[in-house]
Design goal:
Layout (H helix, E strand, L loop, with lengths): L3 H15 L2 H16 L17 E3 L5 E3 H5 L14
Antiparallel strand pairs: 1-2
């Protein structure tokens, strides 16, 4: 079974084949711009402990990170978007 890191690398290789070059160039330019701000240096890194937090779930119930950790492993995915 492939690790998550291997699966992501494979996904990245495949997406390059499907996404138009001009779009990929725009994405890469945006990523370079974000990295130049030093944003990554202030983010949680691999192995860091996430601070406790509470959010509203799809049922409009407040659930904390600790609630989910009682029953399962948690994968956090952060999106920095403009929508």
């Amino acid at each position: 079974m492939k690790t998550l890191k291997e699966q992501i690398a494979e996904f990245d290789r495949e997406k390059v084949k499907k996404i138009p070059k001009d779009f990929l160039d725009t994405m890469h330019t945006s990523i370079r711009g974000l990295k130049a701000t030093g944003l990554e240096e202030n983010c949680l890194q691999t192995g860091d402990i996430a601070p406790g937090f509470t959010l509203v779930n799809h049922k409009n119930e407040q659930r904390s990170l600790a609630d989910y950790l009682k029953t399962s492993t948690v994968v956090l995915n952060f999106y920095r978007g403009g929508w």
